[in-house]
Each structure stands twice: as C-alpha cells, then as structure tokens.
What does this fold into?
Amino acid sequence: MNVDDLQWQLSNLGGVQPRIVDGILECGGLEALVDAARKREDWFCAAGAVRGLCATGEFGRAWKVLEPFVATCWQPAVRAGVDVLLRWGRVDQALDLAHPKEPQENAVEAWRDYAEALVRAGRVEDAIGVLGPYLRSGRVLAALVGMTEGQGCDEWLLELLTPIAEEFRRNPEEPRIRDLWDVLPAQARVLERSGRADEAIRLLGADVAARRFGPQNNVEFYAELLARHGRIEKLRDLADTHAYAAVRPYVTALENLGRAGEAEAYLRGLIAAGRPGWHESTLMELLIRQGRFDEAIESVEHTFDDLYDKNLLQATMIILADQGQHDKALGLTEGRSPEFLAENEALWLRSNRWWLMGESGRAREAIAEIQALPASDVDDRELTLAWLLTHGGRVEEAIACLRRLPGNRAANDLAELLVRHGRFTEALAVIPEVAAQRDG
It folds into this structure.
C-alpha cells in the first residue's frame, strides 16, 4: 500500500466507486467491504466498512480496518483514523495521531484536522490557538467557523476575525489579503449565531453595496442571511439589483412564508421585462413544486427548440421525472423542430427518451427502437440495452450483456446490478483492482 495509489483512488474515484460501496452497505454487505478493504487495499471499501462498523459500535474492528491505511500517513486516512479513535473514547491516542508530523506538504490541511480533533476533545482554546497562524487561508477560516459552532467561543473568535475583515475592507486588492473574500461572510456568520444578526446584516450589506463580494459571490450568503431573519423588503431590493444571486433566495423566502403567489407574480414580471437571469427556470421549478405541471411546462416551452444555452427542455424533463411525471417528460421529446432534432437528437434527446421509457415501464418499446437503428448510430448501445433489460425485469440477460463488454464503465454497471441482487462478492470481483485500473 502506498500514498500514490491511495491519492489516485481519491482523485479519480478509482477502485470500487463510492456509489457501489454505498449500495453494498445499504443492501447488508458490510462484511464483503471489510474483506475487500483488506485484500484489495481499496480506500473506498475501507471507508465504507469503517462507516458501517462505527454505526454498530464496532470501533475496534473499524480501527483494525484502517490501521494499514493510517500507517502510510496519508492525511485522509489519518483523519478517518482520528475520527474512529475519538468515537471509541481513545482521546489521547487520537490527538497523538492527529498532531502533524513535520515536514509535511499539506501542513495547513493537517493542522486544520488537528484543530478539529482538539475541538471534539473539548480543547477549543487550543484549537483556535493552533489555527491562529493560518487564518489568512480561506479554507481554514471556513473550517474554524464551522468547528467552533456551539462551543461558546464566538466573542473570542470575533476578536480574531474582525481585524482581518476590517483590513480587507480597507484595501481588498492588497496582495496579502485579496483572496480572503471568505472573511466577510465568516464574520457575519459568527455575529449571527452569537445573537448579533442586526450587526451581521449591516456589515455584510455595506460590503455588498460596495461590491466587496468576490468570486465566491457573498451576495448569495447575504440573501440567505436576510431570509433567515425575515428581512423580506431588503431581500426584495437585493433581488432587484443582484438578480443572479438573490432572486432564488427571495422566491424561496416568499414561498416559505406562504406567499407563493407573490413569488410567481414577481418572476413573471422579471420575465415580461426581459430582465437578465434564469427566471423562466426558477418559475418552472416553483410551479412544479406546487404540482402545477402543465402550467410549468407552458411557462418554459417557448425555449424548447432554442439551439443555444437558453433551452430548458432537458432541465424540465429531469425535474418532471424527479416528480414521477415520466409520461409528461416523455411527451416533451415529441414535436420538436427539425433544426433542433438535427442538432440534439443523437447527442442527448433520444437517450433521455429511452431513459424515460425505461422508468415508465416501456423498456421493451425502447429496446425495439434501439435495435431498429444501426449499431454505429447509438453511443453506448450495449450499456443502454443492459440498463433497459434490467428495467424490463430481464436481469440475467442484462448481466450476460454487461459481462461481454470491456472497460471500467461496464464493470461498474455490472457490479451495481449484482449488488442490487445481493451478490456482493461477485460484484466486487468484476471490478478491476487499482493497479489494473491505473495501467489500463
């Protein structure tokens, strides 16, 4: 086992993919994951096994699964090991493991993890002291604010944050701090949770008015802050001036207050006025949440033959499908213009149609459509057919189809199918091990 292989798994979702691990856990295959973590040295299997063992209080076994991974000193494994030890009650051992060993490439990440372990061990002051030298890192700021919530140290934390925030406000282009946009919402968040919401709103409102909101767009955080505290008029003003970031929070706030009619009227007004933003999409989603499916479709159908990025056909189909409205979504694929079909049918439209047919009990019909086309005209033909065979109840045919196909995608699809039928060991066996995947 080596760090390079582990990092490759994490960066590339290599080995056994997390969704397959999740499926094995959900279907009762914990022991198969424990075995795979040991034999395959697979990180996602190990993480899943640890999650399952900790859920049943088997912390000793969880630690045993992790020990070989922790021995590499790879930070994600160290972090997971610290979590297990803390939950097991072995606090001193956890803190010793978490304490960064110098020299270290990812020093900031390691010190952040150590601080979090200190907080969990009840040593909040020590945690803040540990992270003090790294507060000019946006990632550390956000982590510190998150880990100290409810720990009774907000005033002390504000003493650290406020000078940095004020320095940023005075000169946001100064090289040492120009990437610290996160300090503004971080300060507001701590003020809010310490009972000083008015001050948070005042400060962040002034930042937004002065356009100090940066690439992460603190406008959205400000909009949500206003919504949480019922400042609907201020939120309306913000939406009028910062439509891309604030319209959705404003609409959601009105909806949560039982004022969906006002939200709808506001959106229709923006659309009628030609105001920039994805307001048709927001309106469609609002109407669908109310069960007004036909009106939702009507509100956006004028975009369905657009050849450029304003087309909302696929988004509408997906949202309708999420609501169980497969037949309505399927109907949208019909009647499209010849120009639109020429650009999009082979690219994505018909594959979405086959997916919807499979979900709505028409798998046999979709299979017939595919088989009537030249094989070269259908991307991922065999994978699509296997998926449809599964949805048509022809599981063994689907398994046989997937076994014939090369490549990691077919192996993963086959593994998922086997997992759903409780064949965990067989599912893991069809997935190439990490070394083979890296060489492939």
